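Case 169 in the screening queue. Each case pairs one protein sequence with one candidate compound; here the compound is calcium ion. For every case the pipeline is the same: read the inputs, emit a complex structure as tokens, and attach any notable structural observations.

Predict complex for case 169.
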Amino acid sequence: METSRIHIKNGTVGVDTGTRTLLGFAYWAKSRQGSIRRTQVARRVLVVEDSAVIRRLIEVCLRPASLEVIMREDGPGGLSAAISEKPDLLVLDIGLPEMDGWEVLDRLRSDPRTRDLPVLVLTAHAEEESRRRADEGGADAFVTKPFQPNDFRQEVLNLLARIAVEAVS
Ligand code: CA
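Case 169 output:
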């Protein structure tokens, strides 16, 4: 086991029991009361992306991590799925028709039901401006297209791992 998969935080010890592909990521923690508990496994990913090609690529990227992937093609579909499907993480394309990703992010952040949903913004624009906007809009991570499949998967897994850690701290 790699030491980077062992977290010690606020007197609790957590171990990522994932395999080398991080299959079945789980976070175990010893609570301050001394009992062992397992947090909810964060693995449900909602993807909002209008391009069928990119959706397919994302599916291929995330499959080895055995994540549950839910796909929507536009902003309104993404917003309703963000509530009804209870995802752990949203991968949000910015270049969407009609309602773009910035507006989706805005609406998510102003709705108490989705205010805290972690969002990974996906954009074709690498400019500082997009990065700053993602930051100000409350995005948790930022990936530029085109991306390397492994890098993208790692970003998603890192964010899911952060959620698991935050959930027990
Ligand atoms: Ca797009």
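Case 169 observations:
- The first helix runs from residue 52 to 62.
- The longest strand covers residues 12-16.
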